[in-house]
Give the backbone structure.
Amino acid sequence: MSAPESQSSARRGGPQSAAIGPLAQNRLELKITSDPANLREVRTQMEHFAQGAGWPPDICDAIGLAVNEALANVMRHGYGGARDRPIIVTAESVQGELRISIRDWAKPFDPAGLEPRHVGDIRPGGLGLLCMQKLMDVVQYERLPDGMLLKLVKKARSA
Amino acid sequence: MADAKWNMELVSAPRTRGDAVIADVRGDIDLHNSPELRTAIMAILSASKSKKLILNLGMVPYMDSSAIAVLVEALQRLRRDGGRVILTSLQPRVKGLLEIARLDTIFALVASEDDAVSL
């Protein structure tokens, strides 16, 4: 997937959303710029998507937080604070799983080098990855030639 | 403080009660505005001799890790002088995030400002 055209954060309207696919209500795609001002709208849309797909409130909250943390990491570390770089967030609710992907075109890194912070570790940084790992069942980084793809999965609890 | 040099809609002007300096925080706080939160809290700490910072979070429905990092930085700064940070009136999402990071036992969490002042 090539990088989408850079979208000026000065354009009003915020994240562009599109329901795509034959089961439109089960998939959401958002194309945003790496402006932190977009975070609130994205997590709101993600939470609403999860709610519409029938996920319970606590899971919807978890999704919103995990996506927020993942995006913040891209914005801050991947793109170094640049606000006009592309990010694509997709969500699908399929077969008892809520699958989210976050694609960026930042400098690729080796996921093996990521180390989560220890719980209770009292220092300002490093919470984002810890949150994702605590909130989601799967957190998987894939290094691509031109960026990174993060996959987050939440699985329905068994009865 | 005579002139607050931060977003007063986000963090109120500080006031004192007893040995504590207190500020009210308002709104969702994420990477977009957590730098403003930091500016405000560091300014309050710089201007105050109090070793007890009370932050009322009753009007904060959401915080992300960048906001928590600001609170941790404030805690580290105060701890150097034997001080503490007390958080009051946490909404469920904010409390949940602190619990995920096991920071709910590092900060003092209380239900109200009165409880915080009496600690």
User: Anything to note?
Assistant: DSSP finds four helices and five strands in chain B.
